Amino acid sequence: MTIEAQQPDIVILQEVSRGWFILTGIDQARWLSQRLDMPLIFGAASRDGLWGNAILTRAPVSSTLLRQFTSTVNLHRSAVGAQIETESGLIWVFATHLDNPDEAGAVRLEQVEQLLALWDGKTPAIIGGDFNAPPDSDVIARITGAGLVDTGADLGPEATTSERGQRIDYIFVTPDISVRAARIPEVWTSDHKPVVA
């Protein structure tokens, strides 16, 4: 399995179903949690609570946060956060998925403002997800302008995570986190390639 091959300590996922009949009707979040032997933090985005973002981690979790975005073009969106107890101390991890239509740039900017408000400068922190925005967009400029570091900035313009040939999936960190390496494995387990840092 793609995730197992990376041997992660923390996994950030989007479009995770808890039995959403629109998709498969399977509780993907629970299945992944059991398969990877990693406790689950789920943040619903849909009104019925069956679809959203997830964080999986091997480390103990101290607290969680959830913010459902007030703006959307097509589907409800959210961000989930967890304070995780690592061997090096506490760290905040956030998972999000911003709106996807091309014409939703203004909505993505509103969602980023709500994401940054949820983060609220907590440090050290990791923010990851599907931002549906290329590196040269206003959305990514707003995030890096808030002081977060794009771990994939050195991957080059040919780096892509989406079927459309753009890098739209990111892992951002606060400057107090040292990133040894970031990469995009050449595997299409879904309609996106994974991002690893």
Describe this structure in words.
By secondary structure, this protein is α+β, with helices and mostly antiparallel strands. It has four helices and nine strands. Strands 4-5-6-7-9-8 form a six-stranded mixed β-sheet, with helices on one face. The longest helix is centred in the middle third of the chain and has 15 residues. The two termini are 18 Å apart.
Total helices: the number is 4
What spatial order of strands do you see in the largest sheet? 4-5-6-7-9-8
Number of strands: 9
Question: Structural class of the secondary structure composition?
Answer: alpha+beta
Computed over alpha carbons, the radius of gyration is 16 Å
Low-confidence parts: none
Helix fraction, binned, reads 10-25%
The dominant shape is: globular
Topology as a string of helices (H) and strands (E): HEHEEEEEHEHEE
Please outline what is shown here.
The protein is α+β, with helices and mostly antiparallel strands.
